[in-house]
Q: What sequence folds into this?
């Protein structure tokens, strides 16, 4: 747990240097601890270059991403990336006729997002309606202190109270993240997909099953109503 003696502080990510450090932290933790990243053998540098650094660079101006800093060392020890899902989806909607992505998990999650838009979320998307939680993680050595939960709560409260968001949308294969947003924050599980059964429709005439040997947690679309 976060004790009173811990010299930790939550702060917005508001500059490019902190954004880069947070993207590096998430890249390292996802590569080491995310079951789907481990299965696909995505190295941390690939996650940084192709996913997390572009995400935070593109959304930094939205000021919806936060970090926790240990003030005794000035080290960033946890972070959460988020943005307005309306803008995110309008900038990069799912196109079933587009070529396959080089990274198969990118197509996998993009298809799950499409499922959220057209099936899970039974409303029209509008600006400042759905907060998209893109990634959350804690530096190894600081787990067990409830940092991801505190960040998630802080983000959702801020997004609701200061920016008017009514929902949060989370995609995850990690049991700890699933526990935070479902059990602790009363989120509703929507689409649930076992990656082992997923068909990569954009590859090999729609017959490819790239995760068929995957053994791990399913991928879940979670919708959280941001109640006061």
A:
């Amino acid at each position: 747990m976060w004790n009173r003696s811990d010299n930790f502080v939550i702060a917005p990510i508001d500059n490019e240097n902190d954004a880069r450090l947070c993207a590096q932290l998430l890249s390292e933790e996802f590569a080491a601890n995310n079951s789907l990243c481990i299965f696909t053998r995505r190295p941390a540098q690939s996650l940084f270059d192709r996913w997390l650094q572009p995400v935070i660079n593109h959304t930094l101006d939205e000021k919806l991403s936060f970090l926790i800093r240990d003030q005794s060392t000035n080290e960033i020890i946890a972070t959460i990336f988020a943005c307005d899902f309306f803008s995110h989806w309008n900038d990069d909607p799912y196109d079933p006729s587009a070529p396959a992505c080089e990274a198969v998990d990118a197509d996998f999650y993009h298809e799950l997002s499409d499922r959220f838009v057209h099936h899970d979320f039974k409303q029209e998307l509008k600006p400042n309606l759905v907060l998209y939680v893109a990634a959350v993680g804690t530096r190894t050595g600081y787990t067990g202190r409830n940092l991801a939960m505190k960040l998630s709560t802080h983000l959702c409260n801020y997004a609701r109270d200061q920016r008017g968001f009514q929902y949060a949308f989370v995609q995850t294969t990690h049991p700890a993240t699933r526990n935070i947003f479902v059990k602790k924050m009363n989120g509703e599980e929507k689409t649930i997909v076992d990656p082992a059964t997923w068909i990569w429709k954009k590859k090999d005439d729609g017959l490819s099953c790239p995760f068929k040997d995957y053994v791990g947690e399913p991928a879940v679309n979670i919708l959280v109503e941001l109640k006061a």
Summary: The beta strands are 8-12, 66-70, 75-84, 130-138, 167-172, 188-193, 219-225. The CA atoms of residues 198 and 209 lie 6 Å apart. The mean pLDDT is 94. The two ends are 24 Å apart (CA to CA).
